[in-house]
Specification:
The complex is a heterodimer of chains A (262) and B (269). Chain A is mostly helical and 262 residues long. Chain A contains eleven helices and no strands. Chain B has 269 residues and is α/β, with parallel strands linked by helices. Classes of the chains: A mainly alpha (262), B alpha/beta (269).
Chain lengths: 262, 269
């Protein structure tokens, strides 16, 4: 019984997915939905096969991956760096806080046209968009992680006469790591969105561009295939970050718990 | 290791003179500790005992350099602990501090936790780990060096915390209710273990507790503090031979001292 429950997700999840696709197919057939509105799953599948055999597809995938990962890397560097400074220097954080909140509520997607004017139709404007979106959750989580150091841990470092740098290296930064990873899990998803939205609005490569191009050619099943491909890429990137947790914070409770369940 | 009433100044390891501490809460000035004059001899085991609010933890944190007293002098091995606003690094090196919680860093293995003070003083890694393994043996957690703190029991974590406090070979161990979070049985064992570690290292120990029997079992001298503001109430010598075993607690003499302290404590309210 316990074995069954533990392995249930390996059976139930694919079954649920199959059921959803089946319902989709039945719905399209029963209501005679136009293929321009919603194609049948089989048609999408055929389009996807076509897409995967097209050598140009790989180029689009690489472009989107490159933009996403480059933007994500910038977001990590700037987010952790700035977060660490703001976490340690309280007056600076208090001064900048209204700006941070303001920038966070601002609909950043609306900046894409501006970025295209500033950085051109090439990959740079998409990288910037990906970085801008992914940066905020990483920075705010870093600040939180740096600030939430246990009082007792602080006492230990004070009683050992540790320097500010030593306290940061051996206490604040490792304490912030689980928080930073949580920020990265949110950030990688936003980085993909940033890159794709950038491609939607300008440029001639990438899966975002391909989605728009297929739609413009009334190739709706083709567009669905592109979205399916994007979802798979998103899945892989997200789980790569989740897996990172095991290597970066093997000591953390969340990691120990999942290890015991394995 | 017994106390000598005729101790000279040269024997003094910790000196507190004219100590007073105030702190401000909600704009109000609160006197936490006053009139503290105490000389603790090298190798002595002193227990600070008192009800909550008597300032015993404040007093220990002042000795540890975690709090700077409002007025008065703290000397560690003859050196003033504070020079202007800076703690004297040589004096700090002589102090090992153990808190009520083990306060191990969860992101470091036990050996890295134990040898953290050495890392902060730039001792190379192999030497650090060699020392950590010797200290782990001393405190009775040999073989657990590569584990994460989370994988150890509360008592074992506290042993690791003691090992960390000992890693710079300090002359003084300052302990703030180190076994307060442990269950009664583990606590009795840890007290016997602490006595063994103390005798093996020849260090001076100042320990804070609110358990009378723990105080009488461990101490060469007990300083009883009275609350609001914290003042020195009674200084009491405890003359049982060393090493003491847990059965000493059953002796009539032990019970008499406990009863006497109990009476003093009850009179404070």
């Amino acid at each position: 019984m316990r074995m069954l429950r533990r392995n249930a997700n390996w059976i139930a999840t694919p079954l649920l997915l199959a059921a959803l696709i089946w319902i989709w197919d039945i719905y399209v057939q029963a209501f005679e939905v136009s293929p321009l509105v919603l194609p049948r799953p089989v048609e999408v599948w055929e389009s996807k096969q076509q897409l995967l055999t097209d050598p140009r597809t790989l180029n689009h995938v690489w472009t989107t991956l490159y933009e996403t990962l480059a933007g994500f890397a910038i977001a990590i560097l700037v987010g952790v760096g700035l977060g660490a400074v703001l976490g340690k220097v309280r007056w600076l954080e208090r001064t900048l806080n209204p700006f941070i909140v303001g920038l966070q509520v601002m609909p950043k997607i609306a900046l894409v046209p501006l970025f295209i004017i500033w950085f051109g139709f090439g990959p740079t404007s998409k990288i910037v968009m990906a970085a801008v979106l992914a940066f905020f959750p990483i920075m705010t989580n870093t600040i939180l992680g740096i600030k939430s150091v246990d009082r007792g841990h602080r006492d230990v470092m004070i009683s050992l006469n540790a320097t500010r740098w030593q306290s940061f290296r051996d206490m604040e930064l490792p304490n912030a790591l689980p928080y930073i990873l949580t920020g990265m899990e949110v950030g990688i998803v936003l980085a993909i969105i940033g890159a794709i939205v950038g491609e939607y609005l300008g440029g001639s490569t990438g899966l975002g561009y391909l989605a728009v191009a297929t739609l413009n050619a009334f190739d709706v099943q083709g567009m669905f295939a592109v979205i399916g491909l994007l979802t798979i890429i998103g899945f892989i990137l997200y789980f790569a970050v989740v897996m990172l947790r095991r290597f970066v914070t093997p000591w953390h409770e969340a990691v120990l718990v999942t290890r015991q369940q394995d | 290791m017994n106390t000598r009433p005729d101790a000279t100044v040269a024997d003094t390891e910790i000196l507190l003179a004219n100590l007073e501490h105030r702190y401000a809460t909600d704009g109000q000035d609160v006197l936490a500790l006053t009139g503290i004059d105490l000389a603790i001899r090298k190798g002595e085991f002193v227990v600070l005992l008192g009800p909550s609010g008597c300032g015993k933890t404040t007093m220990l944190r002042i000795m540890a350099g975690l709090i700077r007293p409002s007025s008065g002098v703290v000397r560690i091995g003859g050196r003033p602990l504070w020079n202007n606003n800076v703690r004297d690094d040589q004096a700090v090196k002589e102090l090992g501090v153990v808190f009520q919680d083990a306060n191990l860093f969860p992101w470091m293995t036990i050996e890295d936790n134990i040898s953290l003070p050495l890392k902060l003083r730039n001792v190379p890694r192999p030497a650090r780990h060699e020392k950590a393994s010797r200290l782990a043996q001393l405190v009775g957690i040999g073989g657990f060096e590569k584990r994460w703190p989370r994988e150890l029991s509360g008592g074992m974590r506290q042993r690791a915390a003691i090992a960390r406090a000992l890693s710079l070979d300090p002359g003084i161990l300052l302990m703030d209710e180190p076994f307060g979070a442990l269950d009664a049985m583990t606590r009795d064992n840890m007290n016997v273990e602490l006595q063994r570690i103390w005798m093996a290292t020849n260090c001076t120990i100042v320990l804070v507790t609110h358990s009378i029997s723990e105080a009488v079992f461990l101490a060469d001298r007990i300083l009883l503090l009275s609350p609001r503001p914290g003042r020195m109430d009674t200084l009491l010598e405890v003359g049982f031979g060393r090493p003491r075993d847990l059965y000493v607690q059953g002796s009539a003499e032990f019970q008499t001292i406990v009863a006497e302290l109990r009476k003093r404590l009850d009179a404070m309210h």
